[in-house]
Amino acid sequence: MQDMERSNYYIELQMYCRGHYMTIASFDRSSCEKIIHELFDELRGDRQASDLRLLRINLLLNDNENSKTQLRSIHCTLDELAENTKIIIKKTFRSVNFD
After folding, report:
1. 96 Cβ partners below 8 Å, 6+ apart?
2. Taking the alpha carbons of 11, 16, 67, 44 in that order, is the dihedral positive or negative?
3. Mean pLDDT of the 78-99 span
């Protein structure tokens, strides 16, 4: 089986406040691209922002020279964020302990 290339991915949680998004949490995921996109596909929410979805989860790739590129974004409610955080933590735990 071919080794999957690993990269530095970040999952960033943001909250809309006073006209802009502020980062409230960040998960560092050194993982292969396929696995990180599969994880992001499991998250609940919508690609479009709305008055009901004031929380946002971004998938970022740390490029060389410490610049981050946003790859994907999903907007969610507080309940969806709670479920998404649970998904992220479970996947991270499995990755750290069983890789």
Report:
1. none
2. positive
3. 86
